[in-house]
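Lab notebook, bench 4. Continuing the backlog of folding jobs that were queued last week. Each job is logged with the same field layout so the records can be merged later without manual cleanup. Today's entry covers Chlorophyllase-like protein, a 276-residue chain. Filled in by technician R.K.

JOB TYPE: sequence-to-structure
TARGET: Chlorophyllase-like protein
LENGTH: 276
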Amino acid sequence: MRRRTAIIAAGLIMLAGCGSPTPVQETAPSTVVRLDLARGADRPLPTEVHLPPGQGRHPLVVFVHGYTCHVSEYADLIANWVVAGFAVAAPTFPYTNGAAAKLDVMDLLHQPEDVSAVLDALLAASAKEGDPLHGRIDADRIAAGGHSLGGMTTVGALGRWRDPRLKAGIVLAGSARDVGAEFRGDPAAMLFIHGMGDQVVTIDQGRAAYDAVPWPKAFLTLPSGTHRNPFMSPADPDFKLVAASTTDFLRWRLNGDADARKRLAALGTDFDDHLG
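JOB STATUS: finished
OUTPUT FIELD FOLLOWS
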């Protein structure tokens, strides 16, 4: 039975769509808690929270899907993070998901605040006795990440709509278009990954956002990468690299894992490393 939690909160972009939802395939046993969240009556934010096996508090990643995409299309990437010990919260955004009755690409401008609202609800649940999330989220180790429009949302959540609880950001085939590159607040390390063959959000747009980041940062170039397959399809030759590098970035930034940092440093000439 789904439970409902209310969250109380006082140019044109052309982006390629994703596709039909695909079955979720977990690569290891995990718990999925499904929450019917909302930020007001017209902003439903149903959210899947994927918890690693075992008890205890886990670092959290809030993941934002792309325009006309479905959370399930990122199941394999999410599963990699969960296996590594990260809790992953994946909301479905009301006017940019693939099943939305009314699509509005410029609803992007509301999504960074949706990320903060979802985070409010998850941390409240984690502090509440008897809740399925009680004691499962570490409030001091939180990152945001997203693909395409979700990457732009992540830039916004670390910029114009800065949520100070975010300690890191992952931008997959994203840019600062329409959200602006107004990074502010305490440093939050950021990892950008972009394909040279991306014809939807060009690598130059991703680079421009990266160049504006004043904090520790890195940019991984996928020489043959396209807009979506490296981030969604395990059959894509770049998927393993994306999964490994994002996981090591999270291990380094949220867990202080020195070995993960060494693996990132060894990625080679396609990795522009200014993580410090």
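OBSERVATION: Residues 1-14, 20-28 have pLDDT under 50 and may be disordered.
SIGNED: R.K.
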